[in-house]
Structures are given as structure tokens and as C-alpha cells.
Amino acid sequence: MSNLEAKFADLGAENAPGQEVRQNADDLKSVVRGDVIPGRTVDFSHGDVDAFAPTPGARAAWEAGYDLGCAQAYTEYRGAAEIRADVARSLAGFTGAPVDPVDELIITPGTQGALFLALGAVVDQGTKVAIIEPDYFANRKLVRFFGGEILPIPLRYHDTPDQNGPNLDALEAACKAGAEVFVFSTPNNPTGQVFGETAITRIADLAAQYDLTLIVDQLYSRLLYSGEGYTHLRACATRPDKLVTIMGPSKTESLSGFRLGVAFGSAALIDRMEKLQAIVSLRAAGYSQAALKTWFHEPEGWMDARIAQHEAIRDDLLAVFRAAGFRTATSQAGSYVFPELPELAVSPEVFVRLLRLQAGVTVTPGSEFSPHTTSSIRLNFSQDQTAAVAAAHRIVEMVKRYCA
Amino acid sequence: MSNLEAKFADLGAENAPGQEVRQNADDLKSVVRGDVIPGRTVDFSHGDVDAFAPTPGARAAWEAGYDLGCAQAYTEYRGAAEIRADVARSLAGFTGAPVDPVDELIITPGTQGALFLALGAVVDQGTKVAIIEPDYFANRKLVRFFGGEILPIPLRYHDTPDQNGPNLDALEAACKAGAEVFVFSTPNNPTGQVFGETAITRIADLAAQYDLTLIVDQLYSRLLYSGEGYTHLRACATRPDKLVTIMGPSKTESLSGFRLGVAFGSAALIDRMEKLQAIVSLRAAGYSQAALKTWFHEPEGWMDARIAQHEAIRDDLLAVFRAAGFRTATSQAGSYVFPELPELAVSPEVFVRLLRLQAGVTVTPGSEFSPHTTSSIRLNFSQDQTAAVAAAHRIVEMVKRYCA
Question: Which of A159, A208, B221, B258 could pair with B288 as two cysteines, CB 3.0-4.6 Å apart?
Fold first, then answer.
């Protein structure tokens, strides 16, 4: 196998969310047990923007952008200056540390675009990168694509809040072993764990001590459940020199169809990201950028209501899965749950396909998030509540049917 | 300088179209001659979508996509199936060879996105890539970014149509020297030259003989001037096995603010491109994709009128530059002219900045397109005709002012 063939074999996207439609179901016939379980189809691989509609005003903002014409179609590669100024102000307020709109922020095609550019800016052949396990699947794929080497950092997430968290001794060992970059999401995707203040502070300290570049994906940090706190790494006492924070309005705000993300942090890194964006896709779609004018300017009470609705769905799903005996961590933020299934008579990949075929339920296999979580499945529960709960019951029924 | 530093130094985007706004003009004071020349500001670095508005119906198509909701927000990574089916049909008709919408086409964030994915799919450390000089600046940058090696192929463009063209003996020599990929634009950016049937046929033959992968950027192939013909490489008698053709509605159709491109060709290459898109930006903005429903379905006569308007501007600019004695090739298609300026008392980069400062005219320096075209400038003449002609006269006046 040539180097390029190996590189693309590593990028297998067959099980990636949204790609299931390309699968062929013929080979499942020999293992199928029982009939189809009726019920409304639910695609837990991503949020349902029909159940949770885009921020009020987003469509009108796009239309105003279109009407602006050339100035909105051809922005700087890092995004329209006026929009960056507004977003930088909001993000400074939200995270508790200043953001220079001229040099420290870039608008990207989704947070996926931001992650790609951030890792592309710092990972090269042989760069050692510390990666949480489990964490967002693209992190590992990106590091491999750029030729980097992964140093895994285990995440504990099935215990009490003060036992849970990333293994920071493993992170320090990785630093000693030459790690130059640490990329992670908090709230963690897929477990919904928010890294606590102690962990975040120690990460900042380790970065200072070992000259580590930090890339923090805070995509879900606005969707924080009752009683939970959030520590922004960029507002730490020892603010890391080389830090990029990533956010975007695709999730809580349901603006995914606009493909918008932002990265903010060290000017030198943002500058590299813009240079890379110039050859990757030039800029986030010009007219789409205008929808960012609604971000952090949602109507009074809108965000609180959205959080409460998600919390209710989370509680329902936790109750269903725990009653069935599936170990499931309590998501502190975001819209993912990551139940662990008992041993099954079919492989996890086949089970996930059977779920889709027989129960009308699409989930993302745990193998996408780390090599050690193959028995878990990830659900994005930003869905119609009734449909989501019914689908969770079908998952439980399917697990019973295929138990080893 | 570390490998990454070198890589990003190569990606310098300071002179890239649209980025001039980030430049500081203080250092020009010592070389300035004369006053500001009044006149309406013209940015020739890209087309003016206010002068040439987006295709009728594009805005309504976006709105219908937005109303579709989740299905349009979360398409397959390669784009919405129904839209691909329609676009594949149109492109098969336009290029004269079939396109399978399921496996042979991907929708990307602009044609820049398509180029990035296509080169990312085939260029790795040490891959030898034949590149036309001059050609679109991102081609060279992309090859370097992926670690490839550039084998330059000179383009003759100042002579008669049968003398002009790429040096195909140089291409054959490159093949013998191990070139695995050949990427080029036709119509050529920046000269507007359309590669003739003889050249295209020989390229197809060389590809077959040397197992060369071909990436053809046909972005401007719809904007073809009177009396010109166009040969589609993918419709050649020896249709290349490994071929990706790139097009998009950003130019002639002025849909740049939607960020849409398409790549179509060999299923194995399109598959790799989708895998790469999955980690780069997931997909072209979902709602934007809906605007492709207007593509190749423009109102009767609309495209003919648009071509005629551009041809009139081309003729005016050629007349102005030739009267001033600047060697300027006749663009056969597209909206670029690439006049060669006489020797100046300031460097070409400084002259381009002075043009912006004193004449209100933005152009792209020839050094972006090859190391041998530093005395030329590129103009995208998709502009208001009167403003463009007045700006061309100011360029001539500025050249006189700064003559060596």
C-alpha cells in the first residue's frame, strides 16, 4: 500500500455521522433477528434543526448580507472585519479575556474548518500531539493526515465528578516525551464532560512549563446544564502563549446549514490559519458570515429555554439507558450521551447498522472516538423529545434482541 | 527555520486577491511620485458581483433550501443527492461525456475547495507535479503545502493561436522525470488562453502513456468569446483514467458569496476527496448548495448577454493597454487580462501598492502566477465597464509616472 493509500485508508468516513446513507445493507441478512420495530426515524448522528430551529433572525441576517453584495461576498479570508469586531466583543465577554478582532480571530467554514486549520498550522511530519481518548473523531484523523504522531491521554468519565477528568499525569508524561500540541474538546465530545477548574489550571501550567500549543474545542460551552460551571482556559491566571480556542453557532444555535465557526487566540497561529484558509477554501461563505450577527444576540430568555429543553431530553435518555443497565455518564453540557452497551452477538459496527435498518435509529459507533470505546454509542439528543425517547426505547429493545 | 515555518512562509497571502486591506502604506512615502489620480475605485483582484449580479433565482433557491430545514443543512459530505443528480446531468451535457451523480461528483466550498481536495488526494511528500507557468497561484502553493515537487511547464501566450499553448515536450520530459500529476486551468488564469484541441488531445495521450493523474480547472469554460472553441479533456477519444474536472458558479454566474464548486471525474479520486472533505470542512454550506439548482438553468439569453458584456469590456481594456504599448494577450475566455508592463523605477510589488494608494486600482501582481511574470499584472475585468476603462487609463498614467 502506498503512503497515500494508507493515509486515505485512515480517513475512512463510512461510519461518520451523516454518511450512513452510502451504506449497502445486503450483507446484514444473515445476522438479522426479528422484524422491523416501528416508530419515527431518528438520526442521532447530528442535531435536528427542524426540532430546534436556527436562531431567530439568522435567515434575515443572511438576506441582509446578500443585499450588501460584493462587500459581503468577498471578505478578507479571515472574515468580514465588522462581523469579526462584533464576535470578538461577544467572545471576550463570554470567555472572560480580551480578543483583538484584527489579529486574534478568524471566521471559518464550520468548527470543523477551524480544527483543520488549527491543526494544519501546528502539526507536521512527526509532530507529537496529545489526544484525549475518547474525543471528537476528527482530532485523531487530522493529526494522522498531517503526519503527526498521537500520544493518547485517557479520560475518566464513569465516576464521581472529582474522580472524573483527563489523566494529567499522562499529559505531563506526553510533554516529557516531546508532545508539542494538545488538542481536546470541553465539554468533551462524546461524553459531555466539562473539564473542571483544577484540570484546566494544570493544563495551562503544563503548557507554560513545556511550551505546549493548546487547541481547545469549546463548541458546546454555551449549552451548560443546571448547577454546572465552566472554566475558560484562555482566562486562566497563566494564560497560555500558544492557544487557539474554537467555537461556533452550529450546535446550540442550530446554524449548521450556514457552515460557520470561529477560532480565536494567539495572533501568530491565527495568521497561519488564514494563510492555510487561502488555499483550502478562501473564506467561510460570504453571505453565511452575516448570520454571525445574530450570535450572542439571541432574544432574552431564548438560550435559557433552549438549555432547559435539552436538559429535559438528557434526563429522559439517561433514565431510559440506566434503567436498562447501560453505564451512561451524565452530560454536564452539550447534547451528547455516550451509553456503554453490554456484550452483543454481533460486532458493534454491525449492531449500529442493524439499529438503522430495523429500528430506524442512527447513532455513531464508539469506535470513532477511541480504540477503547467500541462498545459505546454516541447520540446527539438535540432532537424532538418524544421521538428521541421512543427511539431510545427501541435501542434498548434491539440490545436485548442481540445480547450475546 | 523549522519545516513548518518554511511551509507557512511559502504560503504568503499578503498579495493574494482581497487581502490588500491588511497592508500598511507608511513605507511607500519615500518613493511616491505625484498626487492621487481621482476616479472611482476599482478592485480588479476579483469580479464585482454588484456590477454583474448573481444568477436570477439564486437568492430564492437559497431561501427554499433554508425552508427545507435539516435535510438541506446536513447533506452527505459530497453534497445533497438530488442536487448532485441535477448538476451531473448538466455537466454531462456541457462537457459531452457522462457523469455518474452517485460516485463521480462532489460539491465543495468553492472551486478553491475542489482544488485543495483534488491535490490533497494525489500529492504527498515527494510527489512530482507538473504545473503550467503562469497559472493560478494556489496550484503551486498547494503542491508545496502537501510536500510535492513542482516541475514547471512553460505556457506560450504572446504569439499567434497556433504558436501559443503549453510546452508539451516539457510535459513529456516531466513525465519521463517521474511526474505523477498534472494540474492546469483552461481557460488559463491569468492569460485567458483556451488550450486547443491538439494540446488537449496530446495531454490525454501522455496521461495514458505515463499513467498521469490530471486535474483540470475549467472554472471559466462557460464564458467563451465569439469565434472561440473549447475542447473538454474528459470527452477525448482516450478519456483519461485518472481525471478530475473542476468547475463552479462563482465567476460567470457571480455566485461567489455562496462558496460553491464541483469536482467530477474518476470515482476513486472523488471518494478520496470526500474523505478529505470530512476532516476539512464536512461539506459546502448546506443552504448554499441549494443555489446550484439555478446552475445551467439560467433564463434564455441571460448567459449570451453576460458573455457579450464581458467581451465588450475585454475589447476596451485590450485597446487601452495596447495603445500604451503593453504586450497583452487576447483572452479567449474568462474575465482576466494580463498586460506586461515596461520596466519601472520601483519594484512590481511596490508599483501594485502605489496603484492602490494613488489610483484607487487594485490588481494582482504577476509574481503570484509564476516566477517569470513579475512585470505583468492581472485584472479581473468582471466590473462596471465605464469604471474599468477609466481605471485602465489610470494604470497607464501611473506606468508613465513610474517609468524607469
Answer: B258
